[in-house]
Amino acid sequence: MNIKKIAVLTSGGDSPGMNTALRAVVRTCAYNKIECMGISRGFQGLINNEIKVLNTRSVRGIINRGGTMLYSARSKEFLTKEGRIKAYENIKKHNIDALIIIGGDGSFTGGMIFQNEFNFPVIGIPGTIDNDLFGTSHTLGYDTALNTVMEAIDKIRDTAISHDRLFFVEVMGRDAGHIALNSGIAIGAQEILIPEENIGMEELIISLKKSKEAGKTSSIVVVAEGDKTGKNVFELAKRVEDKFPDYEIKVSVLGHMQRGGSPTCFDRVLATRMGVKAVESLLAGEYSKMVGVQHGEITLTPLDLAIKGKSKINSELLRVSEIMNT
Ligand code: F6P
User: Fold this and answer.
1) Mean pLDDT, residues 63-68 taken together
2) Which residue range forms the structural domain that includes residue 150?
3) Angle at the Cα of 149 (from 147 to 153), degrees rounded to 5?
4) What tens digit of pLDDT does each residue of 90-132 get?
5) Do residues 112 and 245 share a domain?
6) Active site residue 130
7) Which residues lie below 8 Å from residue 309, measured CB to CB, with a gap of 6+?
8) Which end of the chain is more exposed for a tag (fewer CB within 10 A), N or C?
9) How far is the CA of 171 from the centre of ligand 1 (A)?
10) Catalytic pick among 14, 97, 105, 130
C-alpha cells in the first residue's frame, strides 16, 4: 500500500515520553515527505473528527514535556461497532492511510479490532508507565515514573526516620508490580507487595517483627496498587497496626504524580527511536505490530502478542529484593 498520510493519537493513561514520541513521528513523516495528522483525545477524538495537520513547527518545544499535546482519553463509544464506523468514516474523509497509536494494552486492543474490521494499517508505540506489555523491556514513561517514585519515597523516608514510623506507600501499575518492585529495591524497602507474588499477611508481619527486633525504628513497605494482601493499602495498614500497637503507622498514596514530569534522558531517547521505527515500519508495509526495545534493539512484536503476553516479573529482581531484606 502506498502510504502518503499517517495519523497519530495518544490514548489511555498518559505517560512522560508521549510528546517526545509524537515529535519523532511528525519529524520522521516530514523526513519521508509524507503528511502527518494529529488526532486529539484518542479514539473519541477520531469519532468526533478532532483531527488536525501536524508539521515540524507543531511539535516544537515538547521534547521535554510530560503529558501529551494531543490530550488523551478512554472512549466507550469506540467499543461499539457504530463508534468505530464513525471513526473510519473520518479516516476516509481525511484520506489517512495508516494510524500510529501511542498508548497501553487497552488502546492497542481497540486498535487491533479497528485494524481487523477495516483492514486498516496500525502500529502501536507502548506509552504507559505500567511496563506491562510483552515485547519490550521498557514502555514509554516507565523509567521516568520509577525515578519520580524513588525521589518521592526518599523524601518519605526522611520523615519516617525522624518520627520512628512505618510507612505504607502505594504506587501505580494497575495490575503489574514493576514500578513497586524496582522502586522498592531502589529505596531499600523493608517489604515490596506486588500482585504477582502474594507473600501474605503472616510473612509481612514476620518481616516487620524481625526488622524491629534488629533495632530498626522506621520502615517503608512499597505496595503496588494491584496487590491483594489487603483490601486496599489503608485496610492493610490497619491490620498491621493491630499487630504493632506501639508502632506509629502512616499511609502515603503517590497517585497521579507518577504519570507526570519531564521525561528522563532514557525515555526521551527511547521515545525518539520508537517514533522513527513506527513510521518506517508502516512505510515498509509492517502492520498490526508494537514497536519495542529488547536488549537495546528496537523491535516489532505482533499487537495481539504484546497485549496477551503481558510482561513477566524478573525473578532475579525478586531474589535481589529477598537478599536485601535480611
Ligand atoms: O495505566 C496507567 C495508569 O496510571 C495505571 O497505573 C493506573 O492504575 C491507571 O492508569 C489510572 O487510570 P486513571 O488515570 O483513569 O485514573
Assistant:
1) 98
2) 142-259
3) 120
4) 999 999 999 999 999 999 999 999 999 999 999 999 999 999 9
5) no
6) yes
7) 133, 134, 135, 301
8) C
9) 11
10) 130
